[in-house]
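User: Please predict the structure of the protein below. I'd like the answer in structure-token form so I can feed it into my own downstream comparison script.

Assistant: Understood. Taking the following sequence of 153 residues as input:
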Amino acid sequence: MVTKPITGTTWQAGQDWLLSCTRTPTDVRRAWAAEDYARIPSGEHWRVAEGPLLRSVRAMKHVSRRQLGPVLVDVATAQAWWLLPPCLGDELDDLQQLTVHPPGWVLACPPVLYAIDERAWLERPDGSGRLTDPKALRAAFVQDGRPLAEALG
């Protein structure tokens, strides 16, 4: 199922940014035109942390807008994928709820402008290149009801 495309210059800028993150934008456009996911490898422009959908949605509430980057979700598999800086260190290594994928790991992406099946951007790329701050993401996942300042240590 493909939902109706969303219009807007910010979301179009986000789609253009996502296309700029691949060496084969023509292949990406073809996949989307065929109502399929584009397979975009991580590493050069961003890294990916994968986590459970519900926990990720809860965590998003605790990450400020300026620290929140694109988040892709799949309702059918109950998974979420956070786009993080490519220079990611070990900030998230000991969080059991998140799996940090190595550079080169391929993310199956729908377009920014619309969902494919039950996969969509919950937080869409906006074209700025902003990615989720790993320290803020860590704090959001370990917070468990504690005040954010305490979770940050």
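That's the full token string. The beta strands are 38-41, 47-52, 71-74, 79-84, 99-101, 106-109, 119-123.
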